[in-house]
Amino acid sequence: MELTGAEILIECLKEQGVDSIFGYPGGTILDVYDVLYKTPAIHHYLVSHEQAAVHAADGYARSTGEVGVCFSTSGPGCTNLTTGIATAYLDSSPLVAITCNVSKALLGKDAFQEVDIIGVTKPITKWNRQVNDVNELADVVRQAFFLARTGRPGPVLIDITKDVTQTRGTYEYLPVEQHHVFEIPNQLSKRLMGGLETRKPDLDDVDKLAQMIRESQKPMIICGGGVVRSRAHKELYKFAHLIDAPVSITIMGGGGFIGDDDLSMGMIGMHGSQASNIAVDNCDLMIAFGCRFSDRVALKPSTFADQAKIVQVDIDSTEIGKNVPVDHHVLGDAKRVLELLNARLDQQHHEEWKKFVFSYPTETLYEEGGDHLTPKQVNDAIQRIMPANTIVATDVGQHQIWTTQHLHYRFPGQLVTSGGFGAMGFGLGAAIGAQVGNPDKHVIHVTGDGSFRMNCIELATVQHYDLPIITVIFDNTVLGMVHQWQTLIYDKHYSQTTLDRPPEWVKLAEAYGLKSKRVSTAAELEETLKEALESGHGYVIDAVIDPDEMVRPMVPAGQHITNFLAV
Q: Are β-strands 539-544 and 470-475 bridged in parallel, bridged antiparallel, or unpaired?
C-alpha cells in the first residue's frame, strides 16, 4: 500500500508491538504526531523536557526487558536526548530514539533548528542512521529495533528528514519474526559490535571453567548487569547454590541475584560491603558474569583479586580483559552459559570459606538511636512497607548507593539506576517509564535534593497521567557525595556543595497538584509512606537527614579494594 513516511513509521512501530512512546513535539516531527493522533493503539506520554522522554524510555526498557521508544523534534529537541542516550549506552539498555530533522534540501544550510544529530550521537549509540528516502524508512526502523535488542542491548537513533515524513512511499506489513539483519552495518560502534555475537558458547571453554570450579576452594561470583539484561537470575541462583560460592553484586547487577540470600555479600567496589571486598582479596577463583570491571569495581586493576584466577563471562568480546586481565573467559549470553555450567556440575561445599567471608558485614551498620533519620532507617521503612515486587528508580549520589546497599532486590528490572554514566536527573523520568511499563506494580523514586532539582518538573507528568509514583527525597541540603569527598579528602572545603536555597519540596509538590509531607523521624516516615501507598496517586516525601551522613564503606579511586577510608 502507499503511505506517507509518517504513516510508514507508525505502522512499523505497530509491527514491533510498541504500545507506549515518550516524547515532546516540534515543527519537524508534526506529521508524525498527526498520524499518532489517529492511532489509539499507541499511547504517547508528553513529558516536560526531552531528557525525561529518553530516561522514561530507558526506565521502560530496563524494567520490562522490551525496547523503549522516545520521540523528539530537531535541534535542541534532539540534543536534549543526548544525556539519556549516553546513559543507556553505558548501561546497555535497549531503546530506539526517533528524531526528525529539517528537510533534505535544507541540510547543511544552518536552517532553523538544524543539527547533525547523527554526528553528535555516533559515539553514544550502538547504531544511528539518517533517513532521507521514504523507500528506505521501513527497513531502517526494523533494523533499528533488531540492533537495539540483539546481543548486548543498546540505544539506536533514527533521524528522519521532514520531507520524508510527508512523502508517499510503498509499505508492506512484515511480521516481526522476519525482521533480521543480513549483515552488520558498517556504522555499528566497535564496542557494541561484539555484542551482536549470537553464536553458542564454546563448549571447551565451558568445560574448562567447570573444571576450574571443581578445583577451587575459595570461589566467588560477581553478578553484573549482563545477568540482569539476559534475565538470568534463576540460573545464577541455581549456580551459586550449586557451587556454594558467595556472590557480590555490582550496582548494575541489582536484581540479578536475591539481595538478602544467604550467599549474598552485597555490593562490590568503591562503596561495596566489607564482606565483598575482603572476598575479592582472598578468593582463589573469581567468576564474573556480565561485569566489565569498571573503575568503580576494580579500583586498582594491578592488585584486583591478585590471589585468584579471574574468569569473565560476557556476550561482548570487546569487554574481555579490557579493564582487568583475565585467566579465562567464556563468550556468550549469561543465561545460556549458566545453563551449560549447571548441567555439568555436582554440588560443591565451601563452609570454611563462607564462614570467613561472612564474618565481615554485608552492609553498613548505623546507630539507629537519636531523633533524626538515618539512610538505613529510610530504606528499612521502604523495604518493610512497600510490596516486595516494588520497582525502585533512583537518581545518582549518596541516596543511590544507600538504596543499592540496603534494599534487597529480587528480580531483574526491580532496580532502575544510572550506573555507568551516573546521570543526575535520571530517576523521575525512569520511574515514569517503569510505571507505564508495569502498571500492576508499585514504583518508588528515590532521590536526593541535588538530583531532584534537575528533574522535579516531571511531577507535572506524574500528576497529569495519575501515575502512583512515590518520590522519597533524601534531603540533606548538600550535594551529598561531593560534600562527603570534600570532608574526607579536601579538608572540609565545601566549595559550591551547600544547597541552602529554595524550593520547599512540599510546597513545590502541592503546586504540581500532588500530596506531600516533610518527615524527620522514623515514625513519621513510616506513617507517611503508608499514607502515600494507600492513596494510589503520586506523592512526594521530603525525608530530612543529616548533612554529614556518609556512604560507608568508601574506597578512594585508584586504591586497593580493601583500603577503606570510611567504614
A: parallel
Annotated catalytic, 481?
yes
Q: Is 383 a catalytic residue?
A: no
The bridge status of strand 219-223 relative to strand 247-249 is parallel
CA distances from 243 to 13, 209, 360, 411 (A): 44, 12, 21, 21
pTM for the full predicted model: 0.96
Query: What is the spatial distance between Cα 25 and Cα 46, in angstroms, rounded to a whole number?
Result: 8
Out of 481, 517, 549, 554, pick the active-site residue: 481
- 504 secondary structure, DSSP code: P
User: Taking the CA of residue 296 as centre, how many other CA atoms within 13 Å lie in the half-sphere pointing to its CB?
Assistant: 15
Per-residue confidence (pLDDT) for residue 564, from 0 to 100: 83
Q: Is 113 a catalytic residue?
A: yes
Q: Is 162 a catalytic residue?
A: yes
Q: What is the mean pLDDT of each run of 10 residues along the chain (567 residues)?
A: 97 97 98 97 98 98 98 98 98 98 93 96 97 97 95 97 97 85 58 59 97 98 98 98 98 97 97 96 98 95 96 96 97 97 98 98 77 89 97 97 95 98 97 98 98 97 98 96 94 95 97 98 96 98 95 91 82
50 is catalytic: yes
Question: Looking up cell 521502604, which residue turns up?
Answer: 382
Whole-number Å distance between alpha carbons of 55 and 429: 5
- Give residue 187's pLDDT: 60
Cα–Cα distance for residue pair 515/506, rounded to 1 Å? 8
- Give the other-Cβ count within 10 Å of 448's Cβ: 27
- Enumerate residues 6+ apart whose C-beta is below 8 A from 68: 22, 56, 57, 58, 59, 60, 61, 93, 94, 95, 96, 433, 437
CA pair distance 426, 428, nearest whole angstrom: 6
